[in-house]
Write a structure and sequence with these properties.
There is one protein chain. The protein has helices at 3-34, 37-64, 67-90, 96-124, 130-181, 191-195, 200-212, 215-245, 250-274, 280-301, 305-333, 339-368, 371-388, 393-396, 398-401. It is mainly α and 407 residues long. It has a single domain, classed as Growth Hormone, Chain: A. Helix 1 (3-34) crosses helix 5, helix 3 (67-90) crosses helix 5 and helix 5 packs across helix 9 (250-274). The radius of gyration is 20 Å and the shape is globular. The two termini are 22 Å apart.
Length: 407
């Protein structure tokens, strides 16, 4: 790992921690205001929607613009959104619809941040380090998951929601400074990158066409499109389930989320040192099944802190292994100077079902089956999707269907 990459990773990790603290207090505030799981799912929906819609357009500009500039712009815009919510809260004018709008604005800039960050890693490290790097990238939200709920819950009574958002703004400044300091190499120009230069509209479609023409990447995308619907339901319903069964206990929710984050950190550390299995697809399929069955399904069965903690741990433990293996395959197989468009196209395709899962999770739990039953069913169906990947040759042998980029 290079020094510049580690500095960049540290800055982003600290910023993610601050954002996690703000998101935790938003969850508590929104639940106390309405007491409805649909409200929490809608906050997540509006944060996620623009990321999905604008990701392909963002990918075009990530490949055209300096990637450091794209990340700086995204960080600055997200910090501005947090500042606006802070001012509304201080003046006692903050409403749920304000959070929807600011979340949507932050989601728009996240559409640029995600492909820029991944493509940056590709140019900063040799390809034999991609798996370990993905372990560190997965470690960032996991560390935030451990510390953010505990710190936010402990500080909420002392400094209030406004104090926690102020801390979040300070972490943005740190991320901005470290990002401005590091040098991010420009990607090497490939033949396909040169040939693909055209109008914005044609470049917007390029990533989709790139995936369509490569059966392995197309099949891998289809796998995550199916599984992400069920993973989204699991991620969305954990907080309202715990709050609804514990009398709105902030402490128990923070503890469950923190134990889950310990699992994420453990998985990230394992991947950082291990690098993942030789055949990365095994980590994706087995890890995905483990996250669904040992995580989401188990959470749905729980009525006590211990059961929730176990389910939360395994749900998060397998995430960096699954996503790290998946992203390492894409970074290895896709030319660096077109990764912005290709990663953005892939992100849109796999996030549409995730967005749908977020959207339906609240109503399904609230009006139809109840939260535990929805979680259990999502875990079973999600696990079946991942295991079914072994029956599809283009998924099972995805790493052999395309040469490594640069070979």
């Amino acid at each position: 790992m290079t020094k510049s990459f580690l500095i960049l990773w540290l800055g982003q990790t600290i910023s993610i921690l601050g954002s996690g603290m703000t998101w935790f207090v938003f969850t508590i505030w929104a639940w106390q205001k309405t007491g409805q799981p649909t409200t929490l799912s809608m906050v997540a929906f509006f944060a996620f929607l623009p990321t999905v819609v604008f990701t392909p357009l963002a990918g075009v500009f990530v490949d055209r613009w300096d990637r450091k500039f794209v990340m700086l712009l995204s960080d600055a815009a997200t910090a501005t959104g947090t500042l606006i919510i802070l001012l509304l809260y201080i003046t006692s004018t903050l409403e749920i619809w304000h959070v929807y709008i600011i979340s949507a604005t932050a989601g728009f800039f996240t559409a640029f941040q995600y492909p820029a960050y991944l493509a940056t890693v590709t140019t900063m490290l040799p390809k034999d380090q991609y798996g370990r790097a993905q372990g560190l990238l997965g470690l960032s939200p996991a560390l935030s998951g451990i510390l953010a709920p505990v710190v936010a819950a402990s500080l909420l009574g002392r400094i209030g929601m406004q104090g926690i958002m102020t801390v979040d703004l300070v972490t943005f400044l740190f991320a901005f400074a470290t990002l401005a300091w590091v040098r991010i190499p420009a990607p090497a120009v490939s033949q396909i990158g040169l040939l693909s230069r055209s109008s914005v509209w044609k470049e917007l479609l390029f990533g989709f066409d790139y995936i369509r023409q490569r059966v392995g990447l197309r099949s891998l995308t289809a796998l995550f499109m199916l599984s992400n619907f069920f993973l989204a339901i699991g991620a969305t319903l954990v907080a309202p389930m715990v709050l609804s069964q514990t009398g709105n206990s902030e402490g128990i929710l923070a503890s469950v989320q923190s134990v889950g984050a310990v699992g994420g950190v453990s998985g990230g550390i394992v991947l950082s040192f291990w690098g993942g299995p030789k055949q990365r697809i095994n980590g994706i399929l087995l890890g995905g099944a483990g996250a669904c069955i040992m995580g989401i399904f188990w959470l749905g069965l729980g009525t006590t802190f211990l059961v929730w903690a176990i389910g939360s741990f395994f749900f998060a433990f397998f995430e960096p292994i699954v996503e790290g293996g998946n992203l390492a395959i894409w970074q290895t197989k896709v030319e660096a100077d077109v990764q912005g468009r290709v990663f953005s196209a892939r992100q849109l395709l796999v996030q549409i079902p995730y967005l749908l899962g977020i959207f339906v999770a609240g109503p399904l739990a609230e009006y139809r089956f109840g939260i535990p039953a929805v979680l259990a069913l999502a875990g079973v169906f999600g696990g079946c999707v991942f295991l079914a990947g072994y029956a599809v040759r283009s998924i099972r042998h995805v790493e052999n269907l395309l040469p490594d980029q640069g070979d």
